[in-house]
Amino acid sequence: MRSWKYLFIALLAALLLVACGQQATEDVVEQVEEVTDDVAEEVDDEQAGEDPAAEPEVAEEPAGEREEEPAEEPAEEPAEEPITLTFWRITGDSGESEDLKRIWDDDGELYDLWRAEHPNIDIVIESTPFDEYTTRQLTALAAGGGGDVMMIDNLAVAPGAGTGGLEPLDDCIASQEVIEPSDWIAGLYRVGTIDGVQYSLPFDTDTRIMFYNMHLLEEAGVEEVPTTWDEYIAAAEAVAALDGDAAPMSYSGARFWALSYMWLGPFFNQMGASLVSEDASTSTVLEPDT
Fold it and tell me: Computed from CA positions of residues 115, 118, 122, 127, in that sequence, does the dihedral angle turn out positive or negative?
């Protein structure tokens, strides 16, 4: 770097001498000295590494040794607030299993799937025997209490809605893709509809079936199981005529609800009759024509 700068000074001095002759010698000498001084100062600055215009050179790291900045970890979502729901359910007179999973299905699969999606929600069961349940429930609803989620007997839906304690479900049903009213038995779904508002959804039901004693029928001379109303009445009369304690027909329990919709209700429906008038204002049970 230094050698070519001195060469430049010498070349400049020669050119000036040739161009201006002897008269300009002194002026040329002064100019050369000034240039020489400037060049010397610049050389000294370079040797000292103090050139303010020069930018420091940065050695580039080999590609294989370049450190990568760690990726930012996604922010953790805040934990959902714990929730406890109280579930009121009906139990039989002798008590039933309190296994929370098996309330919904036999193997508990539905509960496990739901719990995996809602780990922050706990369910507490409160069970009450059937004969006490409706009275306890309606009393609690009227007082602004009751469970968060409750089983409700079909006969208690209307009075339950009348207390103002049941939450209308129409908006909830409309917001859920998995709830389709047509998936239920129409009669069971209508039980929860009061004045056009849906207050309950079918949870479970059962099927009434008849058992018959073939030995008793044969003893009464009935060789085949009745399949029509006339055959049934004839078989019942034949069994009633036997000596002994055999009854033509029996049903378990002496509760009004058992008689009304477990036995007489289905029979009435099959015969096209009803326990009440069409507008449900009067009973038809004691009317001979019905």
Answer: negative
DSSP state of 276: B
Q: Which two tokens stand for residue 90?
A: 């009906």
pLDDT attached to residue 275 = 75
Determine the Cα–Cα distance for residues 155 and 157; give it in Å rounded to an integer: 6
Radius of gyration in angstroms for the set of CA atoms belonging to the chain, rounded to a whole number: 50
Query: Which two tokens mark 108?
Result: 């508990």
Between CA 272 and CA 16 the distance in angstroms is: 135
- For residue 88, list its beta bridge partners: 126, 150
Q: ∠ at Cα 189 (184, 192), nearest 5°?
A: 150
Q: Could you report the per-residue pLDDT of 229-279, keeping only the tens digit for each?
A: 899 999 999 999 998 777 887 766 666 666 666 777 777 777 777 777 877
What DSSP line would sit under 173-223, residue for residue? HHH-TT--GGGS-HHHHHHTEETTEE---------------HHHHHHTT--
Q: Which residues contact 126 (CB under 8 A, 6 or more apart)?
A: 86, 87, 88, 89, 147
- Entry pTM: 0.57
